[in-house]
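Example record used in the benchmark description.
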Amino acid sequence: MTELWLFGYGSLIWRPDFNYVEKRVGRISGWTRRFWQGSHDHRGVPDAPGRVVTLIPDLAGSCDGMAFRIPPDEVAGVVEQLDYREKNGYERHQIDCQLAPVECGGKVLPATTVNCLVYLAGQSNHAFLGEAPMAQIAAQIERSQGPSGSNREYLLELAAALREHSLEDEHVFELERLLHRCAE
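Model output (structure tokens):
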């Protein structure tokens, strides 16, 4: 088996919980991150789903996240683990990812394009909630809780991780602002 590049754009940015040998900021084009996927199994429950991110096709858009290089001997276990973690409507896709240059051991690894495994939840899956007014999405996130913790934590951790890597996402940051207003 060969190594695998995996692109994370949600909780994988701040909680990968698998082994990797390299982690780099990456960007995929033609996709936009949105809190449009229902979470019945992690950040909500069947009768009161939370909202988590998925990727929505957007020809003019792009999504920044983290790309992880998984060594060959870890690939099968990581994919099996992620198939379970992302079971609520997510499917595996292969998408080209532009890796940002990074300094490593005194030398700069140049920008490069790699083909990455990406988990995304399409609009036809059973848990897709779709677009809604931002205030409504924020309110749903504020009140949702599931076996993996609060939906609020998920949003705040994602926003903090994006800032940590100097990544911008107006959708995420606007929901964060609205969430703080809900808590006032």
